[in-house]
Amino acid sequence: QMWEEAIHICKELAEQYENQVFDYEMLSDILQREAKFYEKILKVLRPSPDYFAVGYYGQGFPTFLRNKVFIYRGKEYERREDFEMQLLSPFPNAEKLKSTAPPGPDITDSPGQCILCARGRGLEGGSVPGNRPPCGNSCSAFYKANHIQRFSYSRPFKRGPNDPDNEFANMWIERTTFTTAYPLPGILRWFVVTSTEMTLISPLENAIETMMKTNEKIMSEINRHQNDPSLPINPLSMLLNGIVDPAVMGGFAKYEKAFFQESYMQEHAEDAGNIEKLKDLIAWQIPLLAEGIRIHGQKVTEDLRPFHERMEKCFEQLRAKVESQYGVREMVS
Asked: Which structural domain range is residue 177 located in?
């Protein structure tokens, strides 16, 4: 499904057929194939590939694997369980590490075999080539998910006293960033990690990242349905309902409870800028939700009309609350 790469080859062949061998029949064929690739880019949903960080620890492994970490590019819709089973099959005596924390000398210097597997994500994919403007969500998503050489894995942990009423205020993220020897996808499905970097993400920074991803996901669904009205609305229904219906996920109320209390603001005065940023992201989510619900109302079937009306009712309550507290934002069409 790397149609962008196929288009480059089509252009090379078209140049040959038109200006070198003058075979207009083959030129016509290759231009039609190129047009179909462009159509697929716009209309076919391509899942972003999963990446796995795999460490082989212990003296029992061959030297080219021993105490090294590799990044694997997963297959389409591959479950982690299936990937791990395939990973362990060449090493039937290997022990799978349950903790994703980096192992100590007791494991790396042991005579046995221990395998650590963690699901990661790609960072800083290639940008859209040339000086052309963004070519739509489907096109830009390809360049973000391919030609990647940096990957990250996030491990949540709690720091400080445990407060059952405010669990997000002390939920930190330990983020490990890996750099591979070559970008993926490549001639192999996996490449060795050449450098590792570790950073700590505060609970508030994690909330900001989550809100940004949620807003981007809503925008992506809106773009998909605007580009192709024939798409089914089930993914859009689940996404919108999970945000606006407090009985499903609770939306961003958990962040308000954790970070917008007067006590938190007094204790963490240095977070004032990030708190305002989080409030701004919450405010911007309202016009995105409004557009998504408008599209949903146009496409919903009669048997799902009561579900849509309940979602609209929940959204109006949410909109009134957010706009009164964080202001009104307007999305340009």
From this structure: 46-201
